[in-house]
Amino acid sequence: SFASIVGTERGPACIAIAPSGRFAYVVNASANTLSIYRVNTDTGELFPSRTITTGGTLPVAITITSCGRFAYATNSGSASVAAYRVDCDTGMLTFIDTTDTGIAPYAVIASHSGCFVYVVNAGSASLSMYHINPGAGTLTTIGKVGADTGPVSMVEDAAGQRLYVTGLSGVSIYHIHAGSGVLQRTTTPLVL
Predict the structure, then answer these.
(1) How much is the pTM?
(2) Can you give the pLDDT of all 192 residues of the chain as single tens digits?
(3) Which is it for the CA torsion 71, 80, 11, 51, positive or negative?
(4) Distance CA 91, CA 108 (A)
(5) Rounded to an integer, what is the distance from CA 44 to the centroid of its chain?
(6) CB burial class (10 A; 0-12, 13-18, 19+) of residue 9?
């Protein structure tokens, strides 16, 4: 059943829940902000905690590492991904820095391993690959790989071996190299 609507800033675009289930994070594209919420783990209800700027413009996606220590948000308007340290006790985010992406970054995910971040660049039809510094949370660019026209979303398989990317042509599959995090396309787009 429908419970309630929780207010956000202008243009909520994406939500992520911390692995602990205690905190939620919403990027607000029109306001260039990121809202932090406490989650009532019994009812699922959200309580506003704080709102911060994203370090860029037009934030559209957010992800949290599997360990819950770092969060990353894409800033589509400024072609960057912002890194944050997560306080696991309070849910608060501390801005670390931004790293350049391709044109109009859209989706972002942190790998299940917690070692890599991948960004879909809708405007440049590419995927940016990054290594996560496990102590600092900073991103080091691994490189970029081409994608089909209009890539907008992606998901990693449960085994952490493949990345599935949607685009205007269909779904493309990439192999994730376990040691380096480098993506290698394994198929032409699957049209459904």
Answers:
(1) 0.93
(2) 445 556 677 889 999 999 999 999 999 999 999 999 999 999 999 999 999 998 899 999 999 999 999 999 999 999 999 999 999 999 999 999 999 999 999 999 999 999 999 999 999 999 999 999 999 999 999 999 999 888 999 999 999 999 999 998 888 999 999 999 999 998 765 655
(3) positive
(4) 20
(5) 22
(6) middle
